[in-house]
Amino acid sequence: MHPPYDWQPSPPPLAPAPPRRSALTFLLVILLGLLVFLLYRQTGFSLFNGPPAEPRAVTARGDLAADEKTTIELFENASASVVYVSPVELVQVSPFSTNVLEVQGTGSGFVWDQDGHIVTNYHVISGASACRVTLHDNSTFEASLVGAEPAKDIAVLRISAPRGKLRPIPIGTSHDLRVGQKVFAIGNPFGLDYTLTTGVVSALNREIRAANGRTIQGVIQTDAAINPGNSGGPLLDSAGRLIGMNTAIYSPSGASAGVGFAVPVDAVNAVVPQLVAHGKVTRPGLGVVPVSDSQTQRRGIRGVMILSVNEGSAAEKAGLRGVTRAPQGGFNFGDIIIQVGDQPVTDYNSLVNALEKHEVGETVELTILRDGRRMNVSVTLQALP
Fold first, then answer.
1. Nearest 5°: CA angle at 132, between 126 and 134?
2. pLDDT tens digits for 34-64?
3. How big is the CA angle at 207 (ends 154 and 291), to the nearest 5 degrees?
4. Measuring CA to CA, which residue among 295, 296, 288 is closest to residue 340?
5. Which residues contact 324 (CB under 8 A, 6 or more apart)?
6. Spatial CA neighbour of 202 closest among 230, 178, 226, 225
7. Fewer Cβ atoms within 10 Å of its own Cβ: the N or the C terminal residue of the chain?
8. Residue 139 φ then ψ, to 5°
9. pLDDT above 50 for 93
10. Can you tell me the mean pLDDT for 91-111?
């Protein structure tokens, strides 16, 4: 027989001994921490933050290019002649309040002379109760209207500013411009004052429609960016001379699409002195009342038919005839003007444009149709009222 199994419970497991950190390990940790701290202090390097974020060294650019210098000089010289035009309108906020002035859009302009005359577009100030003009030094003056020529979209304002603040813009010519010439536009697009854009003369002798429905001829087309607020500002050539006044853009979106238009400076330089002197433009004319274009076009007539001739007018002295009543009933056609000098006349607008190329007192030769016969008549132009 086997002796009985003598079972006795095993003793409980011994608890682990507490960890012991040797003095050497503790010293190494201290030394490592000190090393990291010294490294950070000396180099700025951090194990957690990455390399230091310091500015890089600047690379010298050298001198500006010659054309850049020219553009900068042009802008600095010309911008002192450019102004900010703010048309305002009297608005009644409520029946119980007094009228207040509210800005109704913005535009640009330029200093014409040291007498305080400012030139801008007619459409910029049209309908405004008053205007304010801000000069290049941010001084603002109330402006009065001297005169306007809606047919050319030109208006002249006047401010009472010290002569020393007024720097007239240099005047150039537009009849000798060539497509491809560099141009520079300065203005206040979207209220962002003194903005410079550059481009070239894209085309010449364009036509645009003025606020009164008349066409403006000889207009300059440019790809220099022109936006709302540029209207009335100067278009300059590379010599910094005024060659046009920025007037309109062609854009389906209302912003610049690279097709801008400027009234030629030759037209501006002809109109502004008359507005300054007389407040209006004296136009040469014949002294006739025309048949409306719609009626002549319905009859298939190409030209301007004279309805009546004013008594004592240049037309009467030249023997021009209007519409008369026929003895058998009905009417006899008046003379039909088809040409002024070598300029063809197709409607009343083209007749006026052709006559305005001449002066009051100048004799021009008209080509007319009378009773189906072509003939020439000399007329000495009169001043229209």
1. 125
2. 776 776 666 555 555 556 678 888 888 888 8
3. 90
4. 288
5. 331, 332, 334
6. 178
7. N
8. -80, 140
9. no
10. 58
User: Is pLDDT larger for residue 227 or for residue 320?
Assistant: 320
Structure tokens at 248: 């309109």
pLDDT tens digits for 354-375? 998 898 999 999 999 998 899 9
Taking only the tens place, the pLDDT of each residue in 331-349 is 889 999 999 999 999 999 8
The answer to pTM > 0.70 is yes
pLDDT of residue 252: 60
Task: Give the whole-angstrom CA distance, residue 185 versus residue 195.
Answer: 8
Give the catalytic positions in this structure. 123, 153, 231
DSSP letters spanning 196-250:
EEEEEEEEEEEEEE-TTSPEEEEEEEE-S---TT-TT-EEE-TTS-EEEEEEEE-
Number of CB atoms found within 10 A of residue 302's CB = 13
Give CA–CA dist 261/222, Å, rounded.
Answer: 6
Q: What is the pLDDT of residue 5?
A: 37
- Residue pair 245/219 in contact by the 8 Å Cβ criterion: no
Domains assigned to the chain: 76-165 (2.40.10.10), 182-278 (2.40.10.10), 284-383 (2.30.42.10)
Side-chain half-sphere CA neighbours of 384 within 13 A = 16
H helix runs in 59-170, sequence order:
66-78, 122-125
314 CB-contact burial (10 Å; exposed 0-12 / middle 13-18 / buried 19+): buried
3-state secondary structure of 340: strand
CA distance 80 to 135: 8
Mean pLDDT (whole number) for 141-170: 94
Residue position matching structure tokens 């060659």: 243
What is the pLDDT at residue 195? 87
CB atoms within 10 A of CB 253: 7
What is the spatial distance between Cα 237 and Cα 200, in angstroms, rounded to a whole number?
9
Cα(31)–Cα(46) distance, integer angstroms: 17
Q: How many Cα atoms sit within 13 Å of 64 on the Cβ side?
A: 8
Q: What is the mean pLDDT of residues 279-305?
A: 91
The size of the chain, in residues, is 385
Q: What is the chain's Cα-based Rg?
A: 40
DSSP H/E element including 269: helix 265-278
SS3 state of residue 354 = helix
